[in-house]
Amino acid sequence: MYKVTERVERMERTNTEELGAAGQHARPGAATNRAMTSFSPADEEKRRGVRRMKATATAMLLFVALVYVVAKWASHQGAGPWAGYVAAAAEAGMVGALADWFAVTALFRHPLGLPIPHTAIIPTKKDQLGVSLGEFVGENFLSSDVVRSRLRAVGIGSRLGAWLAEPEHADRVTAELATALRGALTVLRDSDVQAVVGEAITRRADAQEVAPGIGKMLERIVADGGHRRVVDLVCARAHDWLVLHDEQVMDAVQGGAPGWTPRFVDKKVGERVYKELLRFVTEMRDAPAHPARGTLDRFLTDFASDLQSDTDTRVRVERLKGEVLGRGEVQDLIASAWTAVRSMIVSAAEDERSELRLRVRASLLKLGARLATESKYQTKVDGWLEGAAVYVVTTYRDEITSLITDTVASWDAEHTTKKIEAHIGRDLQFIRINGTVVGSLAGLLIYTVSRLLGA
């Protein structure tokens, strides 16, 4: 009997593998279904264990049946009262074994192939079991109270702090962050980032008027005297330029003179203009209280005021801003700035001793120390994690439970039944064995009590 059963199971397994292979070619995307229509080596070993236990339980049934026949025959042959006790025990053992065989078999298939109601529970109720499993998980594992209490009991904040406070762990996190940053910057295309940055800067500049801000900044600079160094620099450079280019200045003045004036007069005028210009610049450079400096201060003050309040000046500045932003040189500057920034960040991420990685590592160690010792930080981190987890659970609970339900519904009923039986069938066969033993003992007890009461 055991060999026949094994041969049948081997034929079913071969058919299952062929069907599974065909299903894989027909539906290459059904990974979950393939998992439920194929058997791993561990599954095959479990199925062999189930078959051995089935054979053992069936052998016990046949044994008690044989004992019953022998005891009955011995009783008719006048073997004595003991034959009745043995026959009663064997008879009850057969009843218990058959009842438990029916119960165990009814879980996976129709006993003897008969469509008895409430049998073959797993293949016929598979979808309902999937729905019930999804509802059970949703109610008992995906509720906000369960998630909060579980996370609060774990104390993630303090554990995370203690873990980050270890230098080797901080080094590991820093290295992982650097790798992620390098990967992100490598994946991003420069043209896309440049377009986004350029558009963001242009949109932000167009949306905000710059003249009042420039006016306020210029007003503060003039009030603090911050522009005087710029004036000093301009005056010094202008003086040096005039000293080096005296002939050019005089030639320019002479070239603008009328054609009817004598050349020596033009030369004298050029020399006079050059000397006066050089004297003016030198005095302005050397005298901080020069009247021209005061005039320049008043001009800048008035210009700062116009930038903030004069409509015509503000309109001109906005027009100039649009022209500047629209120039290709400005967009090229934005592009080159992004390229430089990306190269700098990638280099810093690759260098273990770079300032960026050292600062990140120090920040992680500091964060870990605070999380490990200060309860207020632990409470904040735990609260953030609890809030995030509760949000995910409450928002996507239906999707998670439907994933369970849909996954179970997509499984093939026959192969699912065989796989479940392979995992729990061996233990279920002990029910048949126990039913045989317990039934025999119960039958013996009942027969004994009946005989005692009859006596």
- Average pLDDT taken over every residue: 81
Radius of gyration, in Å, reads: 47 Å
What fraction of residues sit in β-strands?
Answer: under 5%
Q: How many DSSP H or I helices?
A: 20
Mind describing the biggest β-sheet? none
Element string (H = helix, E = strand): HHHHHHHHHHHHHHHHHHHH
Tell me, what's the shape?
Answer: rod-shaped
Q: Could you list the spans in which at least 5 consecutive residues all have pLDDT below 50?
A: 1-32
The count of β-strands is 0
* Count of discrete structural domains: 2
* Distance linking N and C termini: 44 Å
Helix fraction bin: over 70%
SS content category: mainly alpha
Pfam family, one: DUF445
Region (Disordered): 1-48
Organism: Streptomyces avermitilis (strain ATCC 31267 / DSM 46492 / JCM 5070 / NBRC 14893 / NCIMB 12804 / NRRL 8165 / MA-4680)
Transmembrane segments: 55-74, 86-108
Topology:
Elements: H1 2-26, H2 31-36, H3 41-76, H4 82-108, H5 121-124, H6 126-140, H7 144-154, H8 156-164, H9 167-187, H10 190-207, H11 211-224, H12 228-244, H13 246-255, H14 263-286, H15 291-309, H16 311-326, H17 328-350, H18 355-373, H19 375-410, H20 413-454
Helix pairs in contact: 3-4, 3-20, 4-20, 6-19, 7-19, 8-18, 8-19, 9-17, 9-18, 10-17, 11-15, 12-14, 13-14, 15-16, 18-19
Transmembrane segments: 55-74, 86-108
Biased composition (Basic and acidic residues): 1-16
Organism: Streptomyces avermitilis (strain ATCC 31267 / DSM 46492 / JCM 5070 / NBRC 14893 / NCIMB 12804 / NRRL 8165 / MA-4680)
